[in-house]
Design a protein that fits this description.
8-stranded antiparallel beta sheet, binds arginine, alpha+beta, Transferase Creatine Kinase, Chain A, domain 1
Length: 339
Amino acid sequence: MSSFFPEDACSLVKKHLSLNLHTALEHLKTDSGYTLAKAIHSGIKNPDSSIGIYAGDAQSYQTFSKIFDPIISDYHGFKKGQKHASDITELDLAVIDPQKKYIKSTRIRVARNLKGFCFPAHILLPHRRELEKKIKNALSQLKGDLSGNYFPFESLDEKQFQQLKTEPLCFEKGDRFQDAAGINSDFPKCRGVFHSFDKQFVVWVNEEDHLRIISLEKTSDISSVFNRLCRALLALNRHLDFAQDKRYGYLTSCPTNIGTGMRAGVHIHLEKLEQKKELLYDIAKGFHLQIRGTFGEKTKVENAVFDISNCQRLGISESKIVKNLHAGLLAIIAAEKSL
Ligand code: ARG
């Protein structure tokens, strides 16, 4: 697709969208009017995209399946005939690092979108408003340690914003990849964050997906973090109907997040392994873990603090992801200790 994508681009969308396929798909539209041109706009504008495509609604995955399917199987290693299955049963795994010598914090998030609404790249302001209201209502019914307050960005002053940012419970306007996809339209309208009174449960409203549901702790107690998330998902599911696909599980804006929509990870301080990065990357790879910079996606590692999390999200259950992370972290800490 050299005529559409910049020459230096090496995204999956460029790799899989042949000229013939483009011709076959360019006149199609989902019921809400989402087109191929909109879906690949971010990948065209940002030559350094690794994926370069966003879904504008749940139907995008069917209407444009001829381009989404190969990207999904390439990225997730998802085979023909394979089916995704969810499992959010609570776990009881040993705390990895009770002295907090290595692991500073644990965070697990899932991405969710509501059935019947366009995804953030393609939603109109009145619908985004309706969504916010619906989500706010569901959040207000959470009980016990999950209960808390919703902070709409539109009504926060600078001081409140800074407060949320230092925690870090907040999100900011999306990056240039999301911007080109249309995800930032009308920002900061209808965006906000909810957090429980103890700040261990957080929900982002109308970021890259309708909901980013997050459980976090300044401990290495992965089970505790996961179990809180499981309880929250059950509670929210009573009021919210999430967009799902029989084969692909939960549907998200970016095809990298479909399936579980889950990223489970820790911030871990690894002084010795920082000097032996190949070893660290090797162990991580063996457990299907990815290493990001200290402040997440597309950032650098600072002061030997690594962000280590699962790379598999589709074709694997939520509880299996957490068990893999647990086993991988035990191996990484053992290697750090041995050096
Ligand atoms: N669209 C961007 C790219 O192709 C981001 C991909 C994954 N990240 C995400 N936040 N969805 O590089």
